[in-house]
Amino acid sequence: xxxxxxxxxxxxxxxxxxxxxxxxxxxxxxxxxxxxxxxxxxxxxxxxxxxxxxxxxxxxxxxxxxxxxxxxxxxxxxxxxxxxxxxxxxxxxxxxxxxxxxxxxxxxxxxxxxxxxxxxxxxxxxxxxxxxxxxxxxxxxxxxxxxxxxxxxxxxxxxxxxxxxxxxxxxxxxxxxxxxxxxxxxxxxxxxxxxxxxxxxxxxxxxxxxxxxxxxxxxxxxxxxxxxxxxxxxxxxxxxxxxxxxxxxxxxxxxxxxxxxxxxxxxxxxxxxxxxxxxxxxxxxxxxxxxxxxxxxxxxxxxxxxxxxxxxxxxxxxxxxxxxxxxxxxxxxxxxxxxxxxxxxxxxxxxxxxxxxxxxxxxxxxxxxx
Length: 370
Ligand SMILES: *[C@@H]1O[C@H](CO)[C@@H](O)[C@H](O)[C@H]1NC(C)=O
Ligand SMILES: *[C@@H]1O[C@H](CO)[C@@H](O)[C@H](O)[C@H]1NC(C)=O
Ligand SMILES: *[C@@H]1O[C@H](CO)[C@@H](O)[C@H](O)[C@H]1NC(C)=O
Ligand SMILES: *[C@@H]1O[C@H](CO)[C@@H](O)[C@H](O)[C@H]1NC(C)=O
Prior knowledge:
By secondary structure, the chain is mainly alpha-helical. The protein has helices at residues 9-25, 33-38, 42-49, 55-68, 77-105, 112-140, 148-171, 177-233, 243-250, 271-277; strands at residues 258-260, 286-290, 293-296, 300-301, 308-311, 318-322, 356-359, 368-369. The protein is rod-shaped.
């Protein structure tokens, strides 16, 4: 009976080496797709990297570093840019060591010009490191320390400078054949850092563009609100509000002709019902007081119902909501006790006084003029 063949030590060693390499490889790009998708940072990282020129490099670099260490958790795009920059700094340091190593070990074969070029490389790498450290520092205080535009400008300038440094280093070795050898030794590392910087630039641009757009939208909204509030507080009445009406509205109490109350304590339960009963072609002001409450209705005021004034109990108290879009003569007044739409100023219409007029879409809503 032949003895069972035992694997030799050499074979075992190979197997172990193989397993070791497989384990090393897993955290990098070779992560099985299914596993990658279950990885908690997968979507965030993929989305961050989608704006870059080298998305695979972007993804695998950060993914492998997170797998390899128990680094801080990634929860925002900013975290990913920081992690990516951290790696880039590591690679740039590696490049610096390579250049110094080359200078030292090949000193005898290097021409004077090559030595100068290598020295220049160390300098440009030092510059890159400074710029990347400044970028990280700036990102750490982003977006509080400066205006968004200033942050965006500084970050992009720093990273752009870092990108060009790598080219500057390689350009020092494009003079003759001998140079090419040195260039080749440095190229991979320089190109890697350049691509990582390019990715960082794209991610920073994407982050700051989004934040700037959001701030612009927010400012546009609050400016409008400010204008509205200024109208209320400074009593800068719209020009179509007649002096008599201003006095009326400024008076602490306005005698109403009818009252609408959702709870039934008034003359009507709905604004529409009160409008329906309002006089036609009235020469006199007809004041409809709307008590606090939310009225979900499309209030339409026919053209013939002239001189109607609505009076609410204040912003956030009397709210008329409607899913109907504003037809004409809309205003965005939301403040209490302001605003009358004068009949004569519109082809039809009338209007308001206190209360929030909000469409169900969340946009300010005013009575349509018909
Ligand atoms: C950056 O890398 C260093 C080690 O090189 C590590 O200690 C640190 O946690 C890293 N920071 C981030 C944000 O990844
Ligand atoms: C509304 O009431 C006031 C007095 O409270 C009155 O002078 C006015 O004529 C009334 N409006 C109409 C249209 O009846
Ligand atoms: C608006 O609301 C009314 C009643 O609440 C409803 O019948 C109508 O379908 C709505 N219209 C739209 C466009 O949602
Ligand atoms: C709004 O009013 C103007 C006249 O002031 C009119 O020409 C226009 O057709 C109206 N628009 C709508 C949508 O009713």
